[in-house]
Structures are given as structure tokens and as C-alpha cells.
Write a structure and sequence with these properties.
globular, mainly alpha, binds protoporphyrin IX containing FE
Length: 112
């Protein structure tokens, strides 16, 4: 159980870091986003699936402050994925702002 949790969390953080990091880079760089759109959306999908698994494993009980903060991060992440999917890579700045909210919520939730 502990091993599954650690494995899922590592996969989640790795894919989330790639998703957010590539988005921040492309938001600054602008042109050339097209080639990164597929790996970016792939990382997004892995982050969402592993995030859902973590929710099930660790936070499926009655929600408290931690869960509400995580939920705010989840909503921002799903909005970022929607922006990137619909704009085919042109909405990187808006997505970067949304993912900054996600990372802040994910990092802070545990200490709420
Ligand atoms: C829809 C997308 C996402 C969902 C459903 C989700 C869900 C979760 C959940 C439930 C946890 C808590 C795990 C635990 O308590 O052990 C978590 C932790 C975490 N998430 Fe996400 N997440 C998402 C996107 C992201 C993204 C894009 C990042 C970017 C880096 C990210 C980074 C993190 C980090 C670093 C933690 C660990 C926090 C800690 O252990 O203190 N997440 N996520």
C-alpha cells in the first residue's frame, strides 16, 4: 500500500512538474509551442489520472480544509488543460497562470 502510494505520488509530481514547467517555458518563449503540445497534454493526462488515484487513496473521506485547497488546485489544473487542448498550444500564458495556482494549492494543502 505504502509502495503504491509513493509510486503514484512520484509519477504525479514528475508529470505535474513537466506539465507546469513546459507551460511556464512556452508562456515566456511564445513561438514553437506546437512541437510540445502532445507531450504536454500527455503529461497533463498522467497528472490528472495519478491525481485522481491519490485523491481516492488519501483524501476520499469527508472533506476538510486540505481537500478544499486541493480541489481549488484541481479546478485550476482542469481549466489549464481545457485552455491548452482547445487553443492547441496558443493559450500558454493563461494556462501558466492557472497552473501556478495549481502548484501553490498542491504544495500548501498538506499544511492547512
Ligand atoms: C487535475 C489535476 C490534479 C489532481 C486531481 C491532483 C491531485 C492531487 C492530490 C489528491 C494530492 C494529494 C496527495 C497526498 O495527500 O499525498 C496531490 C499532491 C500533489 N500534487 Fe497534484 N493534482 C493535480 C495536478 C497537479 C499538478 C499540475 C502539479 C504540478 C506540479 C501537482 C503537484 C502536486 C504535488 C507537488 C503534490 C504533493 C504535495 C505534498 O505531498 O505535500 N498536481 N495532487
Amino acid at each position: 500500500m505504502q509502495a503504491i502510494l509513493v509510486f503514484t505520488l512520484v509519477l504525479h509530481v514528475l508529470s505535474g512538474v513537466f506539465w507546469a514547467g513546459s507551460t511556464f517555458t512556452l508562456a515566456r518563449r511564445g513561438a514553437g509551442a506546437e512541437s510540445l503540445v502532445r507531450p504536454q497534454l500527455g503529461a497533463a493526462a498522467i497528472a490528472v489520472v495519478t491525481g485522481a488515484a491519490l485523491w481516492q487513496l488519501v483524501h476520499s473521506g469527508s472533506p476538510g480544509k486540505t481537500e478544499y485547497i486541493l480541489l481549488a488546485g484541481v479546478v485550476a489544473a482542469l481549466a489549464a488543460a481545457g485552455v491548452q487542448g482547445l487553443s492547441r498550444g496558443n493559450g500558454q500564458r493563461l494556462a501558466a497562470a492557472l497552473l501556478a495556482i495549481t502548484v501553490t494549492c498542491m504544495a500548501a494543502a498538506r499544511y492547512a
